[in-house]
Structure formats: structure tokens, C-alpha cells
Amino acid sequence: MTSTRSSSTNAKTRSTTRRIEAFRQRFGEGHFWLACHAALPLALTPDLLYSLWANFQRDTHGEAIEIPWIAVADLMLSNLCKEVGNELYEMDKAVRDDLLSQLQNDSRFGLERIRELADFVMAYVEQQLDNPDLDVQDLAQGQQWRALTYKNPSEAAHSIAIVLAQLALDDKAEWIRMAALVNSLEEPLSAFQSLLNYSGAMADLARGNLAAATAQMTQAVDVNYEVRIEGINLTIPDVLNGTLPKSQESEGLPTLSRNRLRLPIAIAGGTIASVLIFIGIQYRLRSPDSRQTPDVASSATPSSQGSPSASPTLGPSMARKRLKTREQPATNAPSVPGVSPSIPSNTPSSSSPNLKQSLPVNVELSVPYLSQRDNVYVNFRASQSTSLAMALSYYGVKPKTPGVQLEDELYQKYQEFGDISDWEATEAVAKTYGFEAVMGLNRTLEQVKQQLASGRPVLAAMSTTRSGSVVCLIGYTESGLIANDPWGNPLTGYTNTDGSRVLLTNEFLNKVFFIESSSSGWAMFITRMNSTDSQSSSLRE
After folding, report:
1. Taking the chain, what is the end-to-end CA distance rounded to the nearest angstrom?
2. CA-to-CA distance for 82 and 497, rounded, in angstroms?
3. Can you name the residues that pair with 438 across neighbouring β-strands?
4. Which residue ranges have biased composition labelled Low complexity (predicted)?
5. Residue 295: phi, psi to the nearest 5?
6. Model-level pTM greater than 0.70?
7. Residue 503 main-chain phi, psi, to 5 deg
8. For residue 461, what are the β-bridge partners?
9. Superfamily assignment of 367-539 in CATH?
């Protein structure tokens, strides 16, 4: 029997390894590292995965990981994930464990990145813990506990024990649900075997399997025949109390391996995320205050309260909150002190099944702001060269000469190719730094947003001064485009000389950007010359 179980485990491990390696070879390193980061949450929604993409584009040393935007859709549609509800996805436990292990063991990430991910997930779901929809609460609580087990296992065990201590002994459905959740945390809670055994025993008891429940509880109790987890005493049902052996060394009852804790779940696709919701629904449908709904499948992933296309399980509230996980840009670039990305506030809705054609509603890249006003050379006409300097800085380009501003170094480089206001000269200068810069005179708003969603800032010509100006576009919202204007804030007529992260409304853009036609303007798209991004072809019209 042991040999058979071992062979089965080895076969599953090999299968998991092959799936992960096949994904890595097909899509590349950027996709793989996104998958590793996505392995920490209990379940994934498009919104959560976009948020991970936006906030974790760099390793712990500040080096770019270079994850293309399309990796979000590719991962959700790959065989590493399975859809368990409306816009709700989950990885197999074996896949999650393998990916997290690789992330933790890589010198570029390690435990520091695991803790960063845990902080991020806990902040992301924080507001959903008070959501009026109980199903949303359940999944948010599971997400929070899973993240906490990787950051502070002791605190997580204490929190879970408190909930178990308050749970009615006859609430069978809830005990099964909680056991499924605790079982999903088996690896990070490995130091709290008593908690794992206790929850497994209570689930067995709820199913009417007294012998299995007794065996599990035997492993859970301490020398005083109590189950005490981080200062919390857990109740042992009377029906089990009388069956426990008098000595911990008793061999009169069967013992079960830790594999017994892997509960046989065959509900709603057999996944932890669906079980957390499904069993809760079943219980509430039998309760006096049950929400009458005959459709379990549709109830398993409730609609968002705030927006029809918002994330159904984790909700839009935390998605709109800017999370500053570290002072580094969430982009394909090295670190930029003092700035942080915003999380995309929305994602493709269920009415748009083709994820690859959808864009996040909000994007803001952490492009450093540079003012042309302190340039050494002709600062009054250096908007184009200074905007290029912002874009290159975002990609990690630094001055080659110590003590010299990058924008001043670029001015010297421009002298080899033409004037600092010449677009062809800008293309040539960018090329010397290893970037392809392509100017287009009929760039649409959608094309600009596609570049920004792909993690690339855009240089755009604006008629905000008599002679025109160039800004570095760094993001967008439903209301307009976000720009770093090197001369200052154009909305104030440049009376405010701080032009960082200015929201240029759609109405304002109609006046200053759509100068070529009513729907297009001048914009330069920039990418690395050695980029293998599948969207690189969109640089040219």
C-alpha cells in the first residue's frame, strides 16, 4: 500500500513539474514568474491577477522581470488554472506549492517576496471582510488566512482557532467548509499539526465517520487531553471525548497518515475556492435567513455590489485602492524611488470572454518625474528630450557620466542627430540606448492605452503652449490620460510648475491632443529593441 501511494505521489509530482515546465517553455520567463506570484492567493480573479501584474514587475533587487500585460490572460487560460466559477480561477494545490517553492528558492525573490505577496493579498481583501454578501466574506477570509500563514503562521493559527472555538458543534456544513480551508493551508501550517488534525476530525464527525474522527482527534490532543492552539482551547465533542485513549502511546485505535487530511471533495468542481462558497451556500439555504436561489452555480460566485464588471469575489473596493508594496515601479524597469503604481480598478467582465482583447480600466505606471526647468541647456524648449529622459529612466537607463542629469546627457547626444525638438532625432537617440522609438501622426486613444496597459510609457505632442509641448503619458483612467508634463501642470496654465501625474481629462484631450483629427494625435511608442513582447508590432501604425 505504501509503495502504491508513493508511486502515485511521484507520478503526480512529475505531472505537475511537466505542466509547469511546458507553460514556462511556451510563454517565457515573464509569464512563469507571474504564475509564481499568482500561486500565493487561494483563488484568482482577473482583477486580482491584473493587480499582481501591476505591482510585482520587479524582483527584490529592483531588477525588471519584464512581464507583458498579455501574461494575465495567458495564465488564466492555461492549464495551470481552471475556472471554478464566473471569473473565478484556481490552481491545483500541487501546482501552487511547486510555484511558490521555486519563487522562494530563487535568489532574486526568496522569503522577502513571499512576505510582500502576503502583505499585498491581505490589503487587497481587507475591505471585503465586511462585505454584506456572506459568500464574498467567506472567500476573502480564506484569502486573508492563506496570506497570513506565509507571513505569520502563529498569528494565522491563532485567528483560525478563534473562529473554530466559536463555531457551533452541530454546524456540520460549516465544519466541513472550515476543514477544507484549513487543509488547503497544510504546508504553511505544518508546525500546527494539532490544528490540522482537529479540523479534520471535526469534518469526519460531521460526515458521521466516528472512527476516523477519533483517530484524527487522538493526534490532535495534548498530554492533558486538550486541543490548545496558540492559547485557544478548542472544544472536543462529548461523543469523541469518551472514545479517546487513556494514553497518548495507546495503540488500540488506528492512526491515519497526514494524507487523511486531504479531504475527498467532489463539490462544485472539487476545488477549495468553490467549496468555501458552495458549502456556505448550502448551509445558508437551510437557515431561516437563507437567500432563496435555486441556482447553486450562479450563487457560488456572487456578483459584485459596486460594478457589473468588477471582480465578483474580492470586489471593486480594494481594487481601487492604491497599494504601495515597495518604492519601485510596477513595470518592466529597475526601481524608481518614491513612487508606486495604482492597481487596475477593473477587469474584463463575464460578458467579454476573450480576455486578450480587454484592457484594465485603470493603469498608472511608476515613471519618475523630471522637470525641464532645471536643465542645463535650453530648458524652455526641452520638453521632448526631457520626456524621453523620463521614459528611459523608467526602463532603468541611468546617466553614463556621474553627476550629470540624464536629460542633459541626452541633449549632448541629440547634437549628433539633430535638434531636441526633432522626432527623427529622438528616434535616433533612443536607439543609441537600445530602444526602438516610433513616431505616429494618427495614434488613437485606444492605441495609446494599449501601450500603457502593456507597461510602456508614451511620448505625446500636446498643444498646451503656443509652440506645442511634449509630455510623457504614464497611465489612464476612464476620465482621461495621466501625464508627466516636464514644464508643469497645463491645467493651471503652468502656474503650477509641478507637472507630475496630471490627469488630462477627455474633454481637455479633445482640445490639446487630438490635433491630427477628431480621434487621433501625435504619439511616440517606445520599447526595447530586443523585446520579444507579442505586442511589439503595435509600435508602428
Report:
1. 64
2. 50
3. 525
4. 297-312, 334-353
5. -100, 95
6. no
7. -85, 110
8. 470
9. Cysteine proteinases (3.90.70.10)
